[in-house]
Amino acid sequence: xxxxxxxxxxxxxxxxxxxxxxxxxxxxxxxxxxxxxxxGRGAFPAINMGSTEEAVEIYAFAPxxxxxxxxxxxxxxxxxxxxERAVDTPEEGEKVSVYAQERFTGSFKRVVxxxxxxxxxxxxxxxxxxxxKIVIPKREASRPRRIEVRE
Amino acid sequence: METKQRTEPRATQQQAAPLVPPVDIxxxxxxxxxxxxxxxxxxxxxxxDVDGDTLTLEATVNLGExxxxxxxxxxxxxxxxxxxxxxxxxxxxxxxxxxxxxxVLTIQLPKREQARPRKISVRAE
Lengths: 151, 125
Known about the structure:
Mean pLDDT of chain B: 84
Number of strands of chain B: 8
Strand order of the largest sheet of chain B: 1-2-8-7
Strand order of the largest sheet of chain A: 1-2-8-7
Order of helices and strands of chain B: HEEEEEEEE
Strand content of chain B: 35-45%
Order of helices and strands of chain A: HEEEEEEEE
Radius of gyration of chain B: 22 Å
Strand content of chain A: 25-35%
Largest sheet of chain A: 4 strands, antiparallel
Number of helices of chain B: 1
Number of strands of chain A: 8
Shape of chain A: elongated
Mean pLDDT of chain A: 80
CATH architecture of the domain at 17-62 and 76-114 in chain B: Sandwich
Helix content of chain A: 10-25%
Number of helices of chain A: 1
Distance between the termini of chain A: 82 Å
Helix content of chain B: under 10%
CATH architecture of the largest domain in chain A: Sandwich
Structural class of chain A: alpha+beta
CATH topology of the domain at 17-62 and 76-114 in chain B: Immunoglobulin-like
Low-confidence stretches of chain A: 1-10
Radius of gyration of chain A: 21 Å
Oligomer: heterodimer
Low-confidence stretches of chain B: 1-14
């Protein structure tokens, strides 16, 4: 095989990624403000948060982790996700060559602030296809309601 | 009479560039293993193609989220992954093996028999 070629491809992609990041920074991330707790792009795991009428859904993109070893906690309106991703790359040796090692390994911790209207006593977390999904229902009082008008 | 403007906002119609998944590439005596992080991708939303000597992996993220979800904050804004590699002729493209588990794709690219390392004995003259 041609290790120099594999390396070249990887570096080129990394460079494009860096360029894209730089551009996004210049352009203010397409208008969306970033969270103070998001340590730039490339933090592991990446987090998306969405809201429905009933609940707040948080998606942590954490492929290849053991869900039993992930810790999810909520304290004072902050959601913390921490854990560790084991190294699954063999050591480089006489018969093993490693051409690219871009995937995250080691321990991670991400903190996101939650909207104020959630009920943190009812947090549900599930792991599927490498995505940790956390659903926190909204408090009854903050859900949209229809108010009947009396005669 | 004014002519109606036909300039469509093309930039907004264009799809955002797909994400480049991070990979590990390891070579052993038997072949090359590629591992790629594809969170939110299941077997059904993944395609691996070998065209000539180019291997391309394409995938779509499916989170199964509720239809009425409003984004509050997003670090992942593109739902597509794509990455290509140029393979050497020493790899047997007919025997490529791939599997995805917990959002990690593993592709095994075995070497052709004749490309595997052999010890060449030196004859004494």
